[in-house]
Structures are given as structure tokens and as C-alpha cells.
Amino acid sequence: MAETTLSGPPHPILENDYASEWMGIEVLSLSDGHATIRMTLRQEMLNGFGMAHGGMIFAFGDTAFALACNPINPAPGEENTITVASGVDINFLKPAFRGQVLTAVADRRSSAGRSGLYDIQIFAADADQPESPTSGTPGELVAEFRGRSRTIPKK
After folding, report:
1. pTM (predicted TM-score)
2. Fewest CB within 10 angstroms: 13, 50, 81, 131, which?
3. Which of 137, 147, 152, 121 is nearest to 57 (CA)?
């Protein structure tokens, strides 16, 4: 499915997502099984070593995961279900620092029945250099997040 760059309202699951709002997450693009989001690291997102707290990077990746798992417009018969994490793994590869812009790129790798597998790459770049001129990636890879999803009834 073609990628859609958003200029209007964000994904419906963000309407009451106060954590993502607090983090300042911006949705860059969404399509079926894909999401790209961005945020800037603020002082209150740092750990005692002056680098991004692992929980902040995890929460950021988890938001991209949720957006990739849940369609903007559910198909008929899907409006009473949601897709949630059944398990995740994250590998922290490099530190990220205050003022850097994080970009998460989430992609579905597999889907079978009610289960799915997603890979989320998290990049960091200085605010004045958001994209690497040589590779076209949005900075240096700082974390790899793999999520396993499960579709369940909405309560």
C-alpha cells in the first residue's frame, strides 16, 4: 500500500495518548503495516548519565509499533478489535543526547491470523542534520526494537 504523508489529524489511537503527547511525537507517515514518527529529546527525557533514558527510547519505539499495527481506517468487521503488543525486545546500540531528533521507522515483517511481527529502527540526528546525506537514513541507528503483536477484541 502507498505511503501517506499526513497533514491533517493524527492516527485515531493518538487522540487520548497523553504519554505520546507529552513526548512531543510527530507522525511523519503512515500506511498499512508502516509508521514513521519523530521527536526531539528534551532534558527531562535524559538519565543520570546525560543520555536518553532507555525507557524514553522504548516508549518512542512502542508508539511507532502501535501505529504500524493499527489501521487508520479499520476494514469492515475490524472496528471492534485493537492490536496490542504480546511481547517486545529492544537492543540499545548507541546513546542519544539532549536536542537530538529521534526518528522511528516501523515496518510489518509478517502477519498470520491475529499475530504479527514488526521491526522498528530508531535513529538519532542532530537537529541541524536530520538526514544522512550518504545513506538517506534519518541519522545514526541507536536502537532496534522488535515487536510481536496480537489482535484482540476492543473492550
Report:
1. 0.89
2. 50
3. 121
